[in-house]
Amino acid sequence: MKDLLPIIKSLKSNLSASLLFILQVAITFTILVNAIFLAMDKRQSIGRASGLDEQNVFYIATNLPVEEDERASMLDQDLANLNALSGVEYASVSSGVPLSGWGRFLEVATEPDARYDTFSGYYGGDLNLFNAFGVKLVAGSEFSPSSELRARTDGHKVAIDIMITKSLAESLYAEQWEQVVGKTIYIDKKPQRVVGVIDKLQAAWPTWVVVEHVILGPVKEADAMVYYIIRTQPGQQSAVMESALAYLMSFHGRKIDKIETFEQVKANAYSAENAASNTLFGVIGGLLMVTALGIFGQSRYSIIKRTKLIGIRRAMGASKGQIIRYFVLENFVLCSIGIAIGIVSAIVLSNAFSNAFSLGTVPVHYMFYGTLSTIFLGQIAVLYPALKASQLSPAIATRTV
């Protein structure tokens, strides 16, 4: 540490260059930490579990090409035949599809006359819908056969029993979420009894703040357009899709609006987040490269300016290791000051983003790892110039003006 005082004096004599170095490190740290946090936040959103059997679930959006009073009968016929196809585990009808943009959202409250406590997505279907999605029950029970009802549309208005996700239960009853089983909650001010709690299931809108709040109702809706959810045996998805399409298209007037695997649905749902995340990682990589080159250039220039001083130190007996240590320590001091400023700036910028875009604030461990990364980057960038400085001959250096 005997080099520390000379380093501080040297920095004072080259104040403008030192301030420029510190500013560069502070800006890099501020952008780096926030960009990594935003990129990782998007990656976490993309990677979070949907609750479905993602590899084996697909859906078909199609019409019921009959008169309104015949749609319920045709719906039952379609479901019976789809369930009978080879390779099908479960086939059901749903009022929407997770992460597809097709669905409904409802107000949820624990008291009849109270203002809503939260919002939730909703899917209505027959008794097979729970198994067709492939979701997991964590409390309570599945629907009883007597709970299944029918509606042309808006099945949530006629449902009596419902299942809800664990996330919604925790929102209503916090740590004692299991208490929701058997209780009556109010869906758009209509009382409905919770019979079971699902581990995970996502609503139709991937960027919705309560995307994991979902209600499942045992109400088959026989509207003009329906969504058939089909879960296949492993490895049978392509064959089942062909068989299901062949059956559905055997009816005159049938139209297939869309057919997608859930993996395709999820990829489409998060395409913007994936692109943004990749862009942010690209920006991070470019920023680190530019910063490393900047530190290298400034360190090299600083060393060239002090060639005579280095030669004098070498002539006075300073070893190569001591020369390298001097410039490495100088870089560490400058980086530390820049990081200290950068931490304050990163916190301010993070809070601004949080207020403007409803994002979370950067956790403390991001600051810690950002500090280590920035110091490591600075040390790597200064190492070559420091090595070159240590190789200067005292005789040549002292002749340099």
Automatic annotation (TrEMBL):
InterPro entries: ABC3_permease_C, MacB_PCD, Macrolide_Exporter_MacB. Residues 37-238 form the MacB-like periplasmic core domain. It comes from the Bacteria. It is found in: Cell membrane. The chain crosses the membrane at residues 20-40, 280-303, 323-347, 367-387. GO terms for cellular component: plasma membrane. It is a multi-pass membrane protein. Residues 283-394 form the ABC3 transporter permease C-terminal domain. Keywords: Cell membrane, Membrane, Transmembrane, Transmembrane helix. GO terms for molecular function: transmembrane transporter activity. Belongs to the ABC-4 integral membrane protein family. This is ABC3 transporter permease protein domain-containing protein. It comes from Pseudoalteromonas luteoviolacea H33.
